[in-house]
Specification:
The chain is α+β, with helices and mostly antiparallel strands and 444 residues long. The chain is built from 13 helices and 23 strands. The chain has a seven-stranded mixed β-sheet. Strands 20-19-21-22-23 form a five-stranded mixed β-sheet, sandwiched between helices. The longest helix has 20 residues, at 38-57.
């Protein structure tokens, strides 16, 4: 299947089954902004919970925070975003379309008479590249003036840096330790696209690990490996994951070293998480701009220093695209096309479908009783409409790992069949053992 066809089918499945909808669709949609539907919100929540558990709950050396999206505009001056968070852009004076200066469709040098607009085809209408800041700007309070400018944060990290001493003082942490956060970020991307890969409003799961300046390399390598292993633990195909090290030209203004974790999407290898050694850049800049001391005092040695920061920065929506793409399979079973989302059971929005084989002889009643019992513990779905094959296929598309069917035998011996989404094997399980059976398989 051609790569674009895979994406088209995935986008259509995502809409059909309620994973992802275009924002404001009835008004023609809002460019590169997406809404999550009933299944999408569950999948995203499961991803975030799993990340939080691994990064915060299962570790003694990381604390969580949830900083506000709006911050003092001086934060973004100190961080370098007001001056430097910009892409060079080219405008067409005729059709008013805007392009990134590195857009492969541009022919010739923008700003010269030879250059031709790739959209309207006119020659000599493209401006020379100009810097365009990616931060969304708005105003706080009743007046629209420069003094009231606030930005929607383009990354969650700064909310951690400006709070690092508050966290240190209110917890019992000592360097090395980390601060984790999940939250929305906004970038006025000029060439967004590829579904939820690059959007203007997105969510980041970031962790900033504060270390002694002399220990930065060791921790950088540690976190790089940890993060890769975490993704492999989600069941993502290891052969489709790789590291990409940033060369000197690619490094962000704040970074000493950076690795991307990339996935082989249908549209090529692309980053979905970055591991960065941000040195003491951010804390030093905030110390200078705020006039507040942001040094760490080691009480054992009385040494004072500004910690170095190793950052792990993951796009939650991008990871969601990774698990959707990686899980999407089309196969032929008994001569029929089966579309299946092979999501890790812990991530699946619905853990089990519950079906009466036919709608008579007490089967619906027994299936309903099972549903009433199970839905207090797991997200389960009761479905009695249509043929059993059709009901299985609906759950395959939703990524539901188990299908529980009440059949004739169930009424006599209180057992049910449990169908495995991936192997299609059916096991007979006692109805009173279902909770335990599901728990064992969902937690592995
Ligand atoms: P890119 O080069 O793709 O624009 P970046 O290098 O600017 O990404 P970072 O600033 O390192 O990205 O952000 C960390 C993570 O946040 C990225 O790996 C990605 O998963 C996510 N992210 C960044 N920008 C977007 C966006 N516009 N839409 C969705 N996720 C994003």
């Amino acid at each position: 299947m051609a790569n674009t066809a895979v994406m088209d089918r995935l986008v259509s499945l995502a809409k059909r089954r309620g994973f992802v909808f275009q924002s404001s669709e009835i008004y023609g949609g809002l460019g590169s902004v997406w809404d999550y539907g009933p299944l999408g919100v569950e999948l995203k929540k499961n991803l975030k919970e799993r990340w939080w558990r691994a990064m915060v709950h299962e570790r003694e050396d990381i604390e969580g925070v949830d900083a506000a999206i709006l911050m003092h505009s001086k934060v973004w001056e100190a961080s370098g975003h007001v001056a430097g968070f910009a892409d060079p852009l080219v405008d067409c004076k005729t059709c008013k379309n805007r392009f990134r200066a590195d857009d492969e469709r541009l022919k010739g040098t923008p700003g010269t008479p030879e250059a031709r607009c790739p959209v309207c085809g006119n020659q000599g209408t493209l401006t020379a590249p100009r810097l365009f800041n990616l931060m969304f700007k708005t105003f706080m309070g009743p007046v629209e003036e420069e003094a009231a400018v606030v930005y929607l944060r383009p990354e969650t990290a700064q909310g951690i840096y400006v709070n690092y001493l508050n966290v240190l003082q209110s917890s019992r942490q000592k360097v090395p330790f980390g601060i984790a956060q999940i939250g929305k970020a906004f970038r006025n991307e000029i060439t967004p696209g590829n579904f939820i890969f690059r959007t203007r409003e997105f969510e980041q799961a970031e962790m900033q690990f504060l270390v002694r300046p002399s220990e930065d390399t060791r921790w950088f390598e540690y976190w790089r490996e940890q993060r890769l292993q975490w993704h492999i633990g989600l069941g993502i195909t290891p052969a489709k994951l790789r590291f990409h090290q940033h060369g000197p030209q690619e490094l962000a203004h704040y970074a000493k070293a950076a690795f991307d974790i990339e996935y082989q999407f249908p549209f090529g290898w692309q980053e979905f998480e970055g591991i960065h050694n941000r040195t003491d850049f951010d804390l030093s800049r905030h110390q200078q701009a705020s006039g507040k001391k942001l040094e760490y005092v080691d009480t054992a040695t009385n040494q004072r220093f500004i910690p170095y920061i190793i950052e792990t920065s993951m796009g939650v929506d991008r990871l969601m695209l990774v698990v959707l793409v990686d899980g999407y399979h089309e196969e032929t079973v008994e001569g029929e096309l089966r579309v299946v989302l092979r999501l890790h059971p812990a991530l699946a929005p619905i853990k089990a479908g519950i079906f009466p084989l036919v709608n008579k002889d007490g089967m619906p009643e027994m299936a309903r009783r099972l549903y009433d019992d199970l839905h207090r513990r797991f997200t389960v779905f009761f479905d009695h409409g249509g043929s059993i094959g059709r009901r299985y296929r609906r759950q395959d598309e939703a990524g539901t790992p188990f299908g529980i069917t009440v059949d004739g035998q169930s009424l006599t011996d209180q057992t049910v069949t449990v169908r495995d989404r991936d192997t299609l094997a059916q096991a007979r399980v006692g109805a009173d053992r279902l909770v335990e059976y599901l728990r064992d398989r969902l937690e592995s």
